[in-house]
Amino acid sequence: MLFVEANGAKIPAIGLGTWELRGRTCARIVEQALRLGYRHIDTAQMYDNEREVGEGLRAAGVKRDQVFITTKVWPSHFAPHDLERSAKESLVRLRLTEVDLLLLHWPNPQVPLVETLGGLARVKRQGLARHIGVSNFTVALIEEAIAACSEPLVCDQVEYHPYLDQTKVKDACARHGMAVVAYNPLAKGRIKNDRALLRIGDRYRKTAAQIGLRWLVQQDVAAIPRTSRLERLSENIEIFDFELSDEDMQELSAMGSSSGRLTDFGFAPKWD
Asked: pLDDT-based confidence at 1, cuts 50/70/90?
């Protein structure tokens, strides 16, 4: 397994996203992923599955210090004391003493960022999270967060796949030693039937999805594809035995534009 290193964190390059996984299915997929060699599991308070993620983790029997667990605080809990209580509640549900990474799930302009980041830094100092970071932050928000936070931020988790150009966010993260973690790395399944990716995949004897994930990892980006199917679990992690050529990397990068975004909400920031 490759790692993406950022401000003291070692983030496994491929993880399992658990958005929309619920109940027994979620626990089973987390357990199977860990048995297959995954060492990075991503959840969030809003996914309503932290309990099941914890169950899957215990059922797999992998040593706790070998698994990188991320969860996220929902914006309605960004007032400092609320954030702290919320982080503790996540740990109770996961049945863990700490998470490896705690993120702010979306920006919340209703609460001053300096206050929220003060609370987030305090959660880290209390030992509830080994590392802290942000999600869905724009370049301007990254700059503001870095200036306002007394502890290092290790990543910005954003939507990223070949159809969406994230050069500006990537460059901003690189300037501050932060990693990019890509959610929706397979563009909600659209990549699987993409002709260009299928053509490139034929050359490497890999699927289109594997080509898309490899493209991210070769940029030193961690990816957290979500699946509820066991065969996809093994497919998504089998990307460390080949390398895309510079030409293939450039061809995939050229597919991206600012209009390729698939996850957008009314409360989203003004994207770069």
From this structure: confident
Active-site residues, by number, are: 47
Domain for residue 148, yes or no?
Answer: yes
Q: Is residue 30 domain-resident? A: yes
Q: What is the DSSP letter of 47?
A: G
Round to whole Å and give the CA distance between 198 and 119. 46
pTM attached to this predicted model = 0.97
pLDDT of the residue at 230: 87
Concatenated DSSP letters for 36-92?
Answer: HT--EEE--GGGT-HHHHHHHHHHHT--GGG-EEEEEE-GGG-SHHHHHHHHHHHHH
Q: Domain of 57?
A: 9-186+221-228
For residue 213, being part of any structural domain is answered with: no
42 contacts 53 by C-beta, under 8 angstroms: no
DSSP helix, strand, coil percent of the chain (3-state; round to 5): 45, 20, 35
pLDDT in tens, 212-236: 999 999 999 999 999 999 889 999 9
**Based on the structure, what is the number of domains in the chain?**
1
Q: Is residue 233 part of a domain?
A: no
